[in-house]
Amino acid sequence: MEQDVESPVTVRQPKLPKHVREDLPKKLEKLEKEAKKKIQRYVRKDGKCNVHHGNVQETYRYLTDIFTTLVDLKWGFNLFIFVLVYTVTWLLFGFAWWLIAYVRGDLDHIGDNQWTPCVNNLNSFVSAFLFSIETETTIGYGFRVITDKCPEGILLLLIQSVLGSIVNAFMVGCMFVKISQPKKRAETLVFSTNAVISMRDGRLCLMFRVGDLRNSHIVEANIRAKLIKSKQTKEGEFIPLNQTDMNVGYDTGDDRLFLVSPLIICHEINQYSPFWEVSKAHLAKEELEIVVILEGMVEATGKQLQCFTMQNNVQTIRWRYECIYLNILYISPICLVMVWKVSLNR
């Protein structure tokens, strides 16, 4: 008995016209370029604020808080100012010591054992500069020493000692504060690349995950989120970067975190949520950002920590996805908790 064998049917694609075939690669290339265009973000994914201050006229205000200005500078500029301040101080006082020796005539009596100079063995500007360094840094080699026959030198020695202590306190304090800043601690706090919108306990929620890579914990960690988007008021005023708080559990205490293992932060989309009137199609067109702020104290140093991250609507917010829980190994009792506690009390 013969069976009919059906052969696969080859479907040929219709041949496109020549001008369409030539324009198609150009259109695809144009679309790829548009897709690769960087979206202007208020806060970058790594937490750096993408805001640059321009047309600042009252720049003297930065000098009124010079300590904070120096701490906020980059390391290269900070080290340059550190070296510059000490070098200028040594040069100024070195010139003052040389000027005293020049006015008193010490430079004209070099090698005269009958002459008592202001500073022994100070015979040039270089030696005055070295004596200035020895005085301010309290090295005291003993080769160059001030004599008691020079009251102006004694006064200059007092002034340099006091000003040197002030410079040391200011510059060393500035470097210490900059080194102990907890900015690098934020590098070990990891946020999920994407945020998801899905159902949880019968409620539509926006969720994302946060975790800590270090064994030392963040003390009193709390988290908050803000929605940044343009807004037009009823009066017609346009606000380009309006900030709206997103409830991530501050009314129930869920915003206070015990960040030992990765946690999923949940924002319920209800009538009080800024996403209440946002649909999936609307989300793809809307220009908005979600800025997440994690605050706490570093356990090792006690410094206040603040970490930022950002979720963009088109690239990082996924609709109807879920956060997968991770397998966490921990030791647990094999009996009931009540029986386990009773056995511990015994």
TrEMBL record:
Main location per the UniProt record: membrane
Catalytic activity: K(+)(in) = K(+)(out)
Pfam families the UniProt entry points to: IRK, IRK_C
GO annotation terms (biological process): nervous system development; potassium ion import across plasma membrane; regulation of monoatomic ion transmembrane transport
Site description Role in the control of polyamine-mediated channel gating and in the blocking by intracellular magnesium, residues in chain: 168
Residues in Potassium channel inwardly rectifying transmembrane domain copies: 43-182
The protein's name in its UniProt record: G protein-activated inward rectifier potassium channel 2 isoform X1
Gene: kcnj6
